[in-house]
C-alpha cells in the first residue's frame, strides 16, 4: 500500500450534484465520512456504501466508492450479502430513523446480533423527511406532524439502546454539527471489526428544525453532552467542572459539581466501554443529565463474516461429481 | 394354487402415523427397487404436523411408489398394495385402491380406542367394508417385538422397528434383496442396539413371509427395465437434483455460490442440502426473513457471487420488492419457488401450480423477468442449470418454478457427466475496456462489474437510471427507453430457446399443453390414448416467460388445444393473452398431482364431444 498516493477527502467526492436541502445536517456528515475515508486510508475500489431509502440513503451517490442505493429498510440485509460474498470489502450502511428502525428494524437487529463487519450510520432526525414530515419511531411524544396533528402519543425507540439490546459490539453517538468529534468517531468506527453502530443526531432543517439544539448546538453541547473516553473519569461542562457519579445502591448515575460539592475526581464514574450494564445506563441518559457521546460500548467479538467461507481448500469438481454420483449403481445388462 | 401372473409394474402405498417412519420405509424400498433395475416414481404425501396426534385421519403420512420394467413416469393412480399401520391409515386410503388390492395390516391396532381416533363407528375388519380386497392380517407389532426382544431396546423403541419388519415382508413380496437396506441401517444408526434391532426386524419380516402360508402368494417381480448401456443410474429427489444443478452450474462457471434463504415448507430441503459446503465455495445464509434472504442474495450478486434465493409462494410474495431491485439494477439472481397450495398459508405440504401469475406478472410496475419450470425430480437438475445460465447471460433475476410434489418425489436418474455441461454466453466482460452500461446487443446484459475493480467504481440502485450513463434520471423519454430495454431483454431470452418439440404423439388432433410437474401423468395419459387410436400430441413447456417463438407454429397444425394444470387456468390465460390462442382447460386444485386416469378420461370425453359436435354440424349442413 506504501506506493499508493495519500487520498484526500476530495478524492471521495463524486461528480454528482448533492441534492439535500440547503442547511441539511447531511452535508456535514458527508464531509466527515469523506474525511474519515481519506484519513483512515480507505481504498475506494474496496469500499462499498449500501443504503436504503430516505434522505440519508442518498449519501452513497456522493461518495466516490462503490455504492448501492437499495430499497426501504433493507440496506443491512443487502450489505450482509455483500460482506459475506467478499469479506475483503469495507462495507458501510447508511440509514435513518425511519429506514433503520421502522421498516427495517428487523434487518438492523439481525445484522447487529450476527456481528457482521459493517459500519452502520443511523442519521436520527426524529422525522420522515423524504415523505414530507410524518413523525418517525424516534419522534418524541407530542410531535406534531401531518399524521399526528394533535401530537404523537406512541413511545419512541431509542436507537442506541436498541442496538445494545440487539447485541451490537460497538455503539456510539455523535452530532452532525460537531465535525471534529464526528471525524474522530468515524475513524474509530472503521477500525472496529464487527457491526459498528453510530447514531448521528442530525438536523432536518425543513421538517424538524433544531430538534437537537438543546443538547447539540455549539453553545449548549458543553453543558448538555458528555464526550466519553475509555478509562477516564466522566467529566463535562465548559470548565469540565461537572461529572457523573454512580450510586451503587440504586444503580443510577447522578450529576455532581466538582467546584460546588465536596467531590473529587476520584469519586467520579470511570468510563469502561466494555461494560454493558454501564453502557445501558449511559445510553439512556437524557436531560437534565448530559447526553452521552462518543464510543459508549465496544467489545471485541468474532465477526460473522470472518470465517464464513472456511479455508476453501476443497476440490469442488471432485466433490460435486461425488455428490451427483451418490448412491449410483451400474446396470449389469 | 395358480401362479400369480407377472405384471409390468406395481403400485405400492405405505401409510401410517407421521411418527411411524413411513417416509423412511418408502425411500428404502425405492433405492432397492432402483438397484434391481426398475424404473420408478414416488409420491411422498405427509401432513404439515411433525408428530400429529397418533391414530388420527389428518395425521396419516403416506408414501407411494410405482416401479416396473416399462417406463414409469408417475407414482401410479391406484395402489395395488396398501400397507396400513393403523385404522386411520386404512380408512383414508381405501377409496384410492385398485379393486382387489392387497391390504397388509395389523389387527392388534384395530382396538376400540384406535377405531375411535380414526372416527370409525364399526370395525372394518368385521363389517364387510374390506370384502372386495385381499387382506393379510398380520400381528406386525407383536412379531416385531418378538423379533427384537433379545436386544433389550425396551418396548417403545422395539415397536419402532416395525417399519423395517414390514419392509422385510414387502421386499419378500417382490423377491427383492435386503442387502441395500441392511447396509443403510448399518451406516445410519451409530447405536449398535438400534442398528441390530432394526436389521433383526427387517430379516424377521422377510423370514415370516417365507415360512408361513403366505409363501405361495409371492408376486412375480416385474422384468427389469432396459437401461442405456454404460450409463450409471441413481434415484434422486427433486429438491436434491435442483441443489445439485445449482452446484454444477457454480462449478461450470467457476463462481462461488451464496444461497440465501429462510425456512419454509416445501422449499427448505435445498437450503439443507447446500449447507456445510463452504469448503468448495458453496455457502448458505439463513436470513432473518424472506426479504433479507432475497436482499442478501442481491448483495452477493452485486459483489460478484452467484446469488440465489428460494421459497414458496408466500415467501416469494415477500421477496417481490427485492426482485424488482434486481431487475432495476440489472443483476443476476436465481429465485426458486417450490409452489404449494394456497392462498395465504394454505396447505403447506400439498402441491399446486398456482404461482404462475405471480411469477410472470406479480411485481409492481413493468418488471418482466424470465420464468422457467422443472417438470420432474431429475429434470430439476437441468432446470437449475438453465436458470443460472439465463441469469448470468442476460444479467437478470430468473424465477424457477418447482412444486411440493416434485421437490419430495424421487425418480430414476441417469447420472449426468458434469463435463458435458457448457454454460454458454455467460456475461464475463470486464477489464478496463468494459463500460458499465454498454449492453450486449443480443442479450441486453450489462457487464458484471463489481467492487474490487478499481477502474469500475460506480453507484447503482433502485432509482431509474440513464440508459447510457447509469446516473439517476427522471427524464420521461429515458424512462420509456429503459422500460423498453427491460422488456426487450426478457424477450431476447426467446432467441436462445431450443426448438419446441412434441414429447409424444403427432401434430394433429388435440394438443395437450402443460408445464411443470404434470409432465409424468400427461406423458403417460397421452401415450396410452395414442395406443387407443386417438390423435393427439403432448407439448410440455420449460420456458413460460418468454414463451418459445415457435410455439404458435407447432400448435397451429392441431385442431384443438387443451391446457392441463394444477390451478384454475393460469397458463391457459397466458396463452390466450400472449398468443391469442383458443384453448380448453383441464384444471385441478386438490393439493394432489393429477392421476393418469383423470387426464385420460377428460381427453376421451373432450374428443367424444368434438365428434358429436362434428356430427351435429354435418346434420345441420
What would you say this structure looks like, in words?
The complex is a heterodimer of chains A (333) and B (621). Chain A is an alpha/beta fold and 333 residues long. Helices cover 27% and strands 19% of the residues of chain A. Chain A folds into two domains: 9-211 and 302-332, Rossmann fold, CATH 3.40.50.970; 216-297, no CATH class. Chain A has ten helices and twelve strands. In chain A, the strands form two sheets. An eight-stranded mixed beta sheet of chain A has the order 2-1-3-4-6-5-11-7, sandwiched between helices. In chain A, strands 8-9-10 form a three-stranded antiparallel beta sheet. In chain A, a hairpin with a 5-residue loop joins strand 8 (235-236) and strand 9 (242-247). In chain A, helix 1 crosses helix 6 (179-191) and helix 2 (75-85) packs parallel to helix 4. The radius of gyration of chain B is 27 Å and the shape is globular. Helices cover 38% and strands 18% of the residues of chain B. Chain B has three domains: 9-212, Pyruvate-ferredoxin Oxidoreductase, domain 3, CATH 3.40.920; 234-420, Rossmann fold, CATH 3.40.50; 504-620, 3-Layer(aba) Sandwich (Rossmann fold). Chain B has 621 residues and is an alpha/beta fold.
Amino acid at each position: 500500500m506504501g506506493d499508493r498516493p495519500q487520498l484526500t477527502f476530495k478524492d471521495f467526492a463524486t461528480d454528482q450534484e448533492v441534492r439535500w436541502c440547503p442547511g441539511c445536517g447531511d452535508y456535514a456528515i458527508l464531509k466527515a465520512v469523506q474525511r474519515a475515508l481519506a484519513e483512515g486510508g480507505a481504498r475506494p475500489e474496496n469500499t462499498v456504501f449500501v443504503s436504503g431509502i430516505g434522505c440519508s440513503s442518498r449519501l452513497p451517490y456522493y461518495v466516490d466508492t462503490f455504492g448501492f442505493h437499495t430499497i426501504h429498510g433493507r440496506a443491512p440485509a443487502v450489505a450482509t450479502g455483500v460482506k459475506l460474498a467478499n469479506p475483503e470489502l469495507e462495507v458501510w450502511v447508511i440509514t435513518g430513523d425511519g429506514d433503520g428502525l421502522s421498516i427495517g428494524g428487523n434487518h438492523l437487529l439481525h445484522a447487529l446480533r450476527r456481528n457482521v463487519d459493517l459500519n452502520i450510520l443511523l442519521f436520527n432526525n426524529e422525522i420522515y423527511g423524504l415523505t414530507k414530515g410524518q413523525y418517525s419511531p424516534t419522534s418524541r411524544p407530542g410531535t406534531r406532524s401531518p399524521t399526528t396533528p394533535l401530537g404523537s402519543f406512541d413511545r419512541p425507540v431509542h436507537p442506541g439502546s436498541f442496538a445494545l439490546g440487539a447485541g451490537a459490539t460497538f455503539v456510539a453517538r455523535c452530532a452532525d454539527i460537531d465535525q471534529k468529534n464526528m471525524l474522530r468517531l468515524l475513524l474509530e468506527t472503521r477500525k472496529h471489526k464487527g457491526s459498528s453502530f453510530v447514531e448521528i443526531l442530525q438536523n432536518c432543517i425543513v421538517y424538524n428544525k433544531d430538534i437537537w439544539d438543546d443538547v447539540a448546538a455549539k453553545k449548549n453541547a458543553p453543558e448538555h453532552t458528555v464526550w466519553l473516553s475509555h478509562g477516564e473519569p466522566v467529566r463535562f461542562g465548559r470548565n469540565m467542572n461537572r461529572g457523573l457519579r454512580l450510586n451503587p445502591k440504586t444503580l443510577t448515575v447522578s450529576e455532581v459539581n466538582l467546584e460546588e460539592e465536596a467531590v473529587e475526581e476520584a469519586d467520579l464514574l470511570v468510563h469502561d466501554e466494555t461494560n454493558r450494564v454501564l453502557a445501558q445506563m449511559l445510553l439512556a441518559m437524557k436531560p437534565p443529565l448530559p447526553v452521552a457521546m462518543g464510543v459508549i460500548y465496544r467489545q471485541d467479538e468474532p465477526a460473522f463474516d470472518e470465517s464464513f467461507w472456511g479455508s476453501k481448500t476443497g476440490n469442488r469438481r471432485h466433490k460435486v461429481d461425488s455428490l451427483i454420483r451418490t448412491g449410483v449403481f451400474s446396470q449389469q445388462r | 394354487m395358480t401362479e400369480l401372473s407377472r405384471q409390468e409394474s406395481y403400485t405400492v402405498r405405505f401409510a401410517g402415523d407421521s411418527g411411524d417412519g413411513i417416509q423412511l420405509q418408502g425411500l428404502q424400498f425405492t433405492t432397492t427397487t432402483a438397484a434391481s433395475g426398475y424404473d420408478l416414481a414416488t409420491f411422498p404425501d405427509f401432513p404439515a404436523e411433525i408428530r400429529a396426534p397418533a391414530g388420527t385421519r389428518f395425521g396419516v403420512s403416506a408414501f407411494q411408489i410405482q416401479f416396473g420394467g416399462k417406463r414409469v413416469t408417475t407414482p401410479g393412480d391406484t395402489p395395488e398394495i396398501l400397507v396400513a399401520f393403523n385404522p386411520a391409515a386404512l380408512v383414508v386410503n381405501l377409496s384410492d385402491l385398485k379393486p382387489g388390492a392387497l391390504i397388509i395390516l395389523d389387527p392388534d391396532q384395530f382396538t376400540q380406542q384406535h377405531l375411535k381416533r380414526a372416527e370409525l363407528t364399526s370395525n372394518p375388519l368385521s363389517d364387510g367394508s374390506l370384502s372386495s380386497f385381499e387382506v393379510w392380517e398380520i400381528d406386525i407389532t407383536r412379531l416385531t417385538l418378538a423379533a427384537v426382544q433379545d436386544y433389550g431396546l425396551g418396548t417403545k423403541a422395539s415397536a419402532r422397528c416395525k417399519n423395517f419388519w414390514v419392509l422385510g415382508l414387502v421386499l419378500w413380496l417382490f423377491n427383492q434383496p435386503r442387502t441395500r437396506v441392511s447396509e443403510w441401517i448399518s451406516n445410519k444408526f451409530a447405536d449398535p442396539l438400534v442398528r441390530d434391532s432394526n436389521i433383526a426386524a427387517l430379516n424377521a419380516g422377510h423370514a415370516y413371509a417365507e415360512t408361513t402360508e403366505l409363501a405361495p402368494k409371492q408376486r412375480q417381480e416385474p422384468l427389469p427395465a432396459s437401461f442405456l448401456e454404460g450409463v450409471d443410474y441413481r434415484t434422486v429427489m427433486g429438491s436434491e437434483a435442483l441443489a445439485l444443478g445449482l452446484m454444477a452450474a457454480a462449478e461450470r462457471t467457476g463462481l462461488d455460490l451464496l444461497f440465501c434463504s429462510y425456512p419454509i415448507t416445501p422449499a427448505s430441503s435445498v437450503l439443507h442440502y447446500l449447507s456445510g459446503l463452504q469448503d468448495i465455495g458453496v455457502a448458505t445464509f439463513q436470513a432473518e426473513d424472506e426479504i433479507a434472504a432475497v436482499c442478501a442474495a442481491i448483495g452477493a450478486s452485486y459483489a460478484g457471487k452467484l446469488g440465489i434465493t428460494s421459497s414458496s409462494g408466500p415467501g416469494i410474495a415477500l421477496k417481490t420488492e427485492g426482485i424488482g431491485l434486481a431487475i432495476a439494477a440489472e443483476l443476476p439472481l436465481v429465485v426458486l419457488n417450490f409452489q404449494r397450495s394456497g392462498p395465504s398459508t394454505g396447505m403447506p405440504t400439498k402441491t399446486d401450480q398456482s404461482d404462475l401469475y405471480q411469477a410472470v406478472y406479480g411485481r409492481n410496475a413493468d418488471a418482466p423477468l424470465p420464468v422457467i419450470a422443472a417438470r420432474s425430480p431429475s429434470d430439476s437438475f437441468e432446470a437449475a442449470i438453465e436458470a443460472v445460465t439465463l441469469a448470468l447471460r442476460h444479467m437478470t433475476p430468473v424465477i424457477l418454478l418447482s412444486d411440493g410434489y416434485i421437490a419430495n418425489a424421487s425418480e430414476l436418474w441417469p447420472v449426468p457427466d458434469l463435463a458435458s455441461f457448457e454454460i454458454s454466453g455467460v456475461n464475463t466482460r470486464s477489464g478496463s475496456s468494459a463500460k458499465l452500461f454498454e449492453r450486449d446487443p443480443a442479450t441486453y446484459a450489462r457487464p458484471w462489474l463489481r467492487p474490487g475493480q478499481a477502474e469500475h467504481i460506480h453507484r447503482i440502485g433502485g432509482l431509474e437510471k440513464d440508459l447510457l450513463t447509469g446516473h439517476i434520471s427522471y427524464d420521461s423519454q429515458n424512462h420509456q427507453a429503459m422500460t423498453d430495454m427491460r422488456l426487450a431483454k426478457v424477450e431476447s431470452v426467446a432467441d436462445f430457446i431450443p426448438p419446441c418439440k412434441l414429447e409424444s404423439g403427432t401434430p394433429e388432433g388435440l394438443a395437450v399443453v402443460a408445464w411443470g410437474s404434470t409432465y409424468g401423468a400427461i406423458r403417460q395419459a397421452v401415450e396410452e390414448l395414442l395406443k387407443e387410436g386417438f390423435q393427439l400430441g403432448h407439448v410440455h413447456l420449460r420456458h413460460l416467460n418468454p414463451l418459445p417463438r415457435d410455439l404458435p407454429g407447432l400448435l397451429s397444425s392441431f385442431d384443438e388445444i387443451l391446457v392441463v394444470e394444477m390451478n384454475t387456468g393460469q397458463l391457459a390465460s397466458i396463452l390466450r393473452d400472449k398468443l391469442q390462442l383458443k384453448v380448453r382447460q383441464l384444471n385441478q386444485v386438490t393439493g394432489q398431482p393429477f392421476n393418469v386416469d383423470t387426464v385420460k378420461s377428460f381427453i376421451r370425453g373432450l374428443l367424444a364431444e368434438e365428434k358429436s359436435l362434428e356430427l351435429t354440424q354435418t346434420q345441420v349442413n
